Each structure stands twice: as structure tokens, then as C-alpha cells.
Amino acid sequence: MCIRDSINAEYGGPPSRSNMPDTQPRTQQPDTGPIADTVQDPGLAPTPVLAVVFDLYNTLIFMTQYNNPWGAVWANIPNLNRRAARVYVMTHNAPPEQLVIDAARAQLPETRLSDLAMDGFLEAVEASATSVQSYPDSEPALRGLRAAGLRLGCCSNLGPPYAGGLVLTGLRELLDEVVFSFEEGAAKGEGPLLYQRTAERMGCPLENILFVGDSVSSDYEGAVQAGMQAVHLDRNNTELSTQRPTIRSLEELLDGRLGTQRDGAQCLKDYS
Predict the structure, then answer these.
(1) Which residues are paired to 152 by β-bridges?
(2) Is residue 153 within 8 Å of 228, Cβ to Cβ?
(3) Which residue in 162, 169, 98, 89 sits closest to 125, CA to CA?
(4) With 90 as the cut, is the pLDDT of residue 18 above it?
């Protein structure tokens, strides 16, 4: 079933001729729509894409100023597991000055405020959080996918100070649902929970959602392990791989070319 047929079936529209019942098996024919119907592993039956969910930072938008203010604050705590501290910040909702100390105390309860290099921390967080821009291909891709009848969402690992990026860049109005890790108490790449909650919010089964993002571990591997389809966005062409579907620009979601599959073959039909 192609995307437009899936949407029509859900909302009562007519099926296309190619989707009429047939007693004989046949090879799926190329669609003429603006985007690809499916992302699949070789040998598996096509699964229709009904929704596309994007990561936020370094996928739809980026910061022009970021100097890792959180890491700078924790620099004087040598025994701190910084990855765990970052996950704490991304899964709790509190002011940044509270989060930065709580994340340290979650591992090292005796941590004192004087142990943290707090000078300039809040100013640096605010400067980075407000220095956001959208990529040139973000708005056209979102509008094109929406025009094709897909539901669109965003699922991001981030702390509370960075939640305003979608509004500041004007992209929020193009998304049906937004799911942030700090609001849900769960993070991508830390188990299936955040992906499951995203599917619930999107009103769509996991297997019918295509996840797009720049992180191999959180946006590709984590999404696939949770049951979604996924495509890795590699804007800088730094992680070229034939082991997963890869795109260089969000515009590729509109022209039907979604990189390579695990056998190194063309991932999806090319409609050009």
C-alpha cells in the first residue's frame, strides 16, 4: 500500500487502481508521488510510511553558538560520568542552575555547589539556546511531506533551556506533535520508551513511522530497535555507510532517493 492509499484508507478516501484487490501476486509498481512509500530491509515486505518523525538539533535546526556550558561547569568533578550527567539533564524538567547540580549529585551525593564552575553558566546557556537557525532544507522538506498527507513530528533529546528552538525558527507550526525527553523522563538511545511514547502521540504504529536524524545510535539504531523505520541524516558526509539507509539532505525525502540499504543497493525507488 502506498502512502496516499494508506492515508485514504484511514480517512475514507478512494484507493488507487493499483491498490484494488487482486488474486494474483504482483510486484509493486513505482508511485508517481513526491516521496518514497517505504523504507525496508532487503527481503522484507514493504511497510507503508504514514508519519515522519525528526530529531531536532543538527537535523532540523542548529545553534550558531555553543561552547558546552554544562561540561565546563562539571570540569572540576573528575569522577563524574558526564554521559550519565547529560542523560540526567535531558530527562528532568527544572531550571538549568538546579539541573546542573542535581545531575552531579545523582552520581556523587556529596557534590557541593562550590565544586561547580558556575561563572557565566546561565549566560552561556541562554546565548546558545537563542542562537538557533533552521537548515535551508528543513522548511521545504516539512512542507513537501505535509503536502503528501503525512503526519509530522519531532522527537528530541534535550534539556529544558533548548526547547524553544522550534518556535524561534518558525518550524513548530509545521509539526503535528513534538516530544521532548525532559518532558517525558526518557531519552532516545536509552531504551524504547521515548520512541513508544512518540508513536502514541503521533497516533501511528511504530512500524509505520520513519525516523530521521543525525545520530546513528539515537536516531537510527535506537529507532529501529524500538520497531520504527529509520534513515540516517549525514549532512557532512562523514559517516558514509552501506549498512544503513543514509541521506545527505532532507530534500532527499522528497525525491525518493534514500541512500543505501544493508546490501549496498539503492534503498528506495528513484522517481526522477
Answers:
(1) 52
(2) no
(3) 162
(4) no
Give the residue carrying C-alpha cell 523504507.
Answer: 39
Distance from C-alpha of 209 to C-alpha of 145, rounded to nearest angstrom: 13
pLDDT at 220 over 70: yes
For the stretch 61-113, pLDDT in tens is: 999 998 889 999 998 898 999 999 999 999 999 999 999 999 999 999 999 98
The pTM assigned to this predicted structure is 0.78
Lowest mean pLDDT among 6-20, 32-46, 56-70, 249-263: 6-20
Q: For residues 77 and 97, what is the distance between their CA atoms, to the nearest angstrom?
A: 16
Whether residue 176 contacts residue 202, with contact meaning beta carbons closer than 8 Å, is answered with yes
Here the cell at position 41 is 530491509
For residues 169-194, average pLDDT: 97
Q: How far is CA 37 from CA 30, 47, 146, 265, in A?
A: 9, 8, 14, 17
What's the rounded Cα separation, in Å, for the pair 105 and 85? 9
Q: Which of 184, 122, 192 is nearest to 158 (CA)?
A: 184
Give the integer Cα–Cα distance in Å for 114 and 118: 8
